[in-house]
Design brief:
Shape of chain B: extended
Oligomer: heterodimer
Order of helices and strands of chain A: HHEEHHHHHH
Number of strands of chain A: 2
CATH class of chain A: Mainly Alpha
Distance between the termini of chain B: 31 Å
Number of helices of chain A: 8
Helix content of chain B: 40-55%
Largest sheet of chain B: none
Shape of chain A: globular
Helix content of chain A: over 70%
CATH topology of chain A: Arp2/3 complex 21 kDa subunit ARPC3
Structural class of chain B: mainly alpha
Largest sheet of chain A: 2 strands, antiparallel
Strand content of chain A: under 5%
Chain lengths: 229, 118
């Protein structure tokens, strides 16, 4: 998904740069509420895991591949503000050290992957967890859906940017179908990894999955009611 | 009744094997290192979703080399290292180290200042 230099014009790149800077500034404030002694080490670990995961492209048939974006995963583990920072750090390191994603496109990539990816995943989980029963067993499947949705959401956002500042004329309907279609397939891989990692952490340290906090309170209440009854 | 009696009588009601944060982070870092330095060698070399679509739809030729395309770690290889496996592995190792160092420092600063203010 990393956008190289040259796909979008300078005005659009400057605009996404401003959006990215604004998002990071907000996240620097918001993350303070999410980070404490318990969660800060996990945030560091999440960044490292997302970087590693992004190195491993998995084939999705027909000559294309995808890799973890990690936004939904990070949001569910450490909260959306911290996740915005974590994924931004990964993207900055990739752009500066490895030439992965363009330099003028850095703001675009932060906007797509660290803002749209993170928050689409986070809100997908939140909305579904409100309408569905609060059963802890539902957290991994919801994590799968959050991961799945986050990838075509970012792809759709790219199409929006391309419609405004794309550097070569294309049929927009073709572009949106291809981008959302392929990234939905890639999103299945994203969802699987997101669900696997969330359920692994849930198994050993349920308190370190921020998105599962309402579920833990519900479980503890049930246990207490059962004990006093 | 004190609140503690609600949890004390049935310590086995939560059969979760409690793992310390330190152990979890160490295991997670080792897994991440293995993924970045070893598994990454087996990553698919096919174009990713965006590149593929750009080829199909017809704007891939607009892509320009990044200004850091000549850096010693460009494209997840290590300049001067012939062995492909080692070249990718070293790049992954450096990436994990830098990403980890920057993020750990950042969250540590944010957490500390938040705590001081409270």
């Amino acid at each position: 998904m990393h956008v190289p230099d040259g796909f979008l014009d300078l005005a659009t790149s400057a605009a996404t740069g401003a959006v990215a800077a604004g998002g990071i500034a907000l996240a620097l404030r918001g993350a303070r509420r999410e980070l404490d002694d318990r969660t800060a080490p996990l945030a560091g670990l999440t960044a490292v895991f997302v970087f590693a995961g992004q190195m491993v492209n998995f084939p999705v048939g027909a000559g294309t591949s995808g890799h973890l974006m990690g936004g939904a995963l990070a949001a569910l583990l450490v909260g959306p503000w911290t996740a915005t920072l974590v994924v931004s750090v990964v993207l900055i390191v990739q752009a500066l050290l490895f030439g992965d994603g363009g330099l003028t496109a850095l703001g675009t990539n932060i906007t797509l992957i660290a803002l749209v990816g993170v928050w689409a995943g986070w809100w997908t989980f939140r909305v579904l967890s409100r309408v569905l029963p609060r059963r802890i067993g539902l957290v991994p499947p919801l994590a799968f859906v959050a991961g799945l949705v986050s990838v075509p959401a970012a792809a759709l956002a790219f199409v929006g940017l391309y419609a405004v500042g794309g550097q070569a004329p294309v049929e927009l309907s073709t572009l949106v179908t291809a981008m959302v279609g392929w990234h939905t397939v890639i999103g299945v891989g994203e969802g699987v990894i997101t669900a696997l990692v969330v359920s692994s952490v849930l198994a050993v340290r349920p308190d370190l999955v921020l998105a599962a906090a309402p579920y833990r309170q519900a479980t503890e209440l049930e246990i207490r009611e059962g004990a006093t009854a | 009744m004190s609140p503690s009696t609600a949890t004390d009588p049935h310590p086995t009601t939560s059969p979760r094997g409690r793992v310390s944060t330190r152990a979890l982070v160490v295991v997670g870092l080792v897994v991440s290192l293995l993924v970045a330095a070893v598994v990454s060698f087996y990553a698919s070399a096919q174009p990713d979703g965006l590149e593929y679509v750009a080829e199909q739809v017809g704007f891939i030729d607009r892509a320009e080399d990044s200004a850091v395309a000549g850096s010693p770690l460009a494209d997840y290889g290590t300049a001067g290292v012939e062995d492909e496996r080692l070249s990718v592995g070293l790049a992954g190792l450096v990436g994990v180290a830098v990403t980890g160092a920057v993020t750990f420092a950042l969250v540590w600063l944010l957490r500390r200042r938040g705590a001081d203010r409270d």
